[in-house]
């Protein structure tokens, strides 16, 4: 453990994703105030509901990571000690990022294409604006599916902790900016990373715009599988939120948690 990070900074590599995520939010939140792209006002109750989802997702994320690591050790006791664990760190981190992104892509895409999974993923698409603080709006079941698809293959294949920490750090930094309402033109970077210019179209309330751009960090797999669509950067989705104005308990977290099991009743007349 440690690699570049403990050697250069005196940090445990396991802390790196958390520190990168905190840094990302620390940078993007002031930028949303100083240089917003759209500057839509929050809805009543939105701020505290974002805080509740943030706490929920952080807890589930930590438990999922620990559980998946334990499962990987039980299934493959030599995880981290195989050939992939011995690769030079830059090579291992790049391979891990590609595999992490592939799992993330398909977990996300299936959440749009499988109706039952969409009921869980709808939590994330319900807000009618895209800002950094609503990124952690994730139903625990949706988050668990994503983390399993992202991390379990890396753990089972024996990537080192340092390689996975670098992937986690990039993902943590990226997702803060991905939802940021910040007026940045990314140019050619939109062809590599899932920037906020790319991702805003994924949050359109029009299915033909939103059922695309599934990548959380890279857009590589969107390009490979034909789901990469980015209009000119000066354009903006007309509206964000769930498709066709679907009624949904956007600012009612307990009702949203239950909604997958009581869909018709729990979404009727909601807001």
Estimate what percentage of residues fall within beta strands.
under 5%
Order of helices and strands: HHHHHHHHHHHH
Total number of helical segments?
12
Helicity level, as a percent range?
A: 55-70%
Biggest sheet descriptor: none
Q: What is the total tally of β strands? A: 0
User: What is the straight-line distance between the termini?
Assistant: 47 Å
Unreliable stretches (pLDDT < 50, length at least 5) are 1-10
Number of domain modules: 1
Oligomer: single chain
- Rg: 19 Å
Structural class: mainly alpha
Net shape: globular
Mean pLDDT: 90
Structural account:
- This protein has helices spanning 3-9, 16-34, 46-75, 89-113, 115-125, 140-157, 161-178, 196-199, 207-210, 220-224, 253-258, 263-267.
- With 271 residues, it is an all-alpha fold.
- Residues 1-10 have low confidence and may be disordered.
């Amino acid at each position: 453990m440690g690699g570049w990070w403990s050697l250069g900074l005196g940090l445990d590599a396991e802390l790196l994703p958390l520190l990168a995520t905190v840094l990302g939010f620390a940078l993007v939140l002031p930028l949303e105030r100083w240089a917003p792209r759209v500057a839509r006002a929050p809805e009543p109750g939105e701020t505290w509901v974002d805080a509740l989802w943030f706490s929920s997702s952080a807890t589930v994320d930590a438990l999922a990571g620990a559980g998946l690591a334990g499962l990987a050790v039980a299934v493959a006791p030599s995880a981290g000690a195989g050939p992939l664990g011995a690769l030079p760190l830059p090579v291992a981190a790049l391979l891990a990022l590609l595999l992490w992104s592939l799992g993330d892509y398909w977990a996300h895409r299936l959440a749009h294409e499988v109706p039952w999974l969409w009921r869980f993923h709808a939590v994330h698409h319900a807000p009618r604006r895209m800002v950094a603080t609503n990124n952690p709006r994730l139903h625990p079941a949706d988050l668990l599916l994503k983390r399993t698809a992202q991390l379990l293959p890396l753990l089972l294949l024996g990537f080192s902790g340092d390689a996975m920490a670098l992937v986690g750090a990039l993902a943590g930094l990226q997702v803060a900016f991905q939802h940021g309402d910040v007026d940045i033109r990314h140019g050619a970077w939109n062809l590599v990373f899932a920037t906020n210019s790319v991702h805003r179209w994924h949050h359109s309330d029009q299915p033909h715009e939103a059922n695309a751009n599934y990548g959380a960090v890279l857009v590589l797999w969107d390009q490979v599988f034909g789901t990469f669509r980015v209009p000119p950067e000066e354009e903006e989705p007309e509206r964000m939120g769930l498709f066709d104005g679907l009624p949904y308990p956007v600012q009612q977290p307990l009702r949203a948690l239950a909604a997958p099991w009581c869909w018709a009743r729990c979404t009727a007349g909601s807001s």
